[in-house]
Amino acid sequence: MGRIGRQTITLDNPPVIQAFAAVAGKKEGEGPLSDSFDLVFQDSFFGQETWEKAESAMLNRALALALGKAGLDYKDVDCVFSGDLLNQCAGSAFGIRGTDIPFFGLYGACSTMAESLALASMTVSAGYANNAAAVTGSHFCSAERQFRMPLEYGGQRTPTAQWTVTGAGCAVLSRQGAGPKITCVTPGRIVDLGIKDLSNMGAAMAPAAFDTLYSHFSDTGRAPDYYDLILTGDLGLVGSGILRDMFYREGVNISGIHNDCGLMIFDREKQDAHAGGSGCGCSASVLCGEIMRKMRQGGLKKVLFAATGALMSPVTSMQGESIPGICCAVSIEGE
Amino acid sequence: MGRIGRQTITLDNPPVIQAFAAVAGKKEGEGPLSDSFDLVFQDSFFGQETWEKAESAMLNRALALALGKAGLDYKDVDCVFSGDLLNQCAGSAFGIRGTDIPFFGLYGACSTMAESLALASMTVSAGYANNAAAVTGSHFCSAERQFRMPLEYGGQRTPTAQWTVTGAGCAVLSRQGAGPKITCVTPGRIVDLGIKDLSNMGAAMAPAAFDTLYSHFSDTGRAPDYYDLILTGDLGLVGSGILRDMFYREGVNISGIHNDCGLMIFDREKQDAHAGGSGCGCSASVLCGEIMRKMRQGGLKKVLFAATGALMSPVTSMQGESIPGICCAVSIEGE
Lengths: 335, 335
Prior knowledge:
Two copies of one chain form a homodimer. The first copy, chain A, contains ten helices and 15 strands. By secondary structure, chain A is an alpha/beta fold. In chain A, helix 1 links the parallel strand 3 (about 15-25) and strand 4 (about 40). In chain A, helix 2 (about 50-70) crosses helix 3 and helix 6 crosses helix 7.
């Protein structure tokens, strides 16, 4: 057990992803991954009074669904790692409230699914928890009005802009049980190459994805093709192109084994999603839906899940700052 | 290594708090703990253009000062756990940017110093890191305008209101070295008894503090007087009174061994701090200043550090929600 290289942590008792669940909104339910979600809701309010409360309810539902599949109650979960995009991470705090599960609040922006999986797997592997949950989500409507404009304003979007996914995902990690295992994690360093365009998060995050993936490969001695799939979080069309270019300049072609949750969740042309999906719920609902189902069925064996986040706030951008990026990678390996 | 009871995690290889540092603003530097800070700055901008940038700079300085005392460079630190109160935790993201230390972003509101210590100590004890840093801070001016009113408005404060501390603290945890050790941690559950008054955070957080402390004592079998000091984060005058009352109703008198960072940092009468200090920087600068100095000198042997946080946001409060509280406890024991 321990560290290899600068950044990577190997897990001697790799925790099993015993159960997982994904919930999604109407638009996501009309996309290419519609069959992979456990629940698609047609009402943007999810039966609540506000979009913010809907976000919490969605996250809570993903947790409950995943626990149900694992046959666990809240009291069986030793700790939950959760965060989201709302100010003060209110989506997760109010979503977890009432469960009585010991709570570690996180902020990793759109990298939260990987950050929560990393910390949950480290916690389970070390014997600190028998069962730990990793859960996150996002909501298009609450994100738009917090980060950009009121929806009623009807602002135009640039072609590089991404569409915040309405969705949530949860994975339950356990010491015992059957299922794909998390074998090592590579937490990310903050990388900021000076991008200031808030409508081009892919460009801001791609260098962080490259940095973490490059460290993962050099720390572990694995070549990219060790994996069946290198799955970035939400680089979208622009960021994915930049990431592949950066590897290509190092003499490595990852095009054949790389995909991005932001490219998978929407039909960009038919669904008007511009450069693709984004948000904590993007990588959470794609991983805990489509990808984990394929791993469970044996269609995918080894996946390097590398969720990406942009760590700016509207205030820092208004104060002239550039956008710091981060990427956390988690190695998931099936039987 | 492992769990005891519902919530507590025992650390088989208790990490050493090898170094610590606290920085503080002018008002804090005029208070009772003025001699315990490594650096007191007179300029609320800390040489920056904005208060938000000052907050990041302050946090970065606390990290650099603590590493300097430990004789470590950024590259020697395997990971840093950090968070703050600013939207999207921008204070920590921009404060850590440029260090190239693998980063785990947290949101625990004012409980962040304990949450970061808990996760850092779990990470070091498990062998995932040789050195890990826990760092957080807050700034009165950035907090006021984000959570309450523009300072220029000159709003009146109620007697139950607390004063956000301008300050930061950092602790460096290591597998080797001399110093007080973190022996176990009790992460908190979210507790919400329905308090909605944003000017009375102490009342909202006290039940969470009671819940975590009560769990800690029942999980470990330790009586409160096992410790020389039970140090809550920032309950202030109102919350501290409620906490003591709650224990008293259980037949336990903690008055003699309980203190609160929010009560220690200001002279409430002379410094117009109403119910006391608050903010991530409150418990961070008190722990990483006064308390750790006393532990290092042998004046304190066993401290249960239980930082408290209020997990609401201005939006959730405007939407009629109550204030969820949380408290994370960390047991620190000297030679």
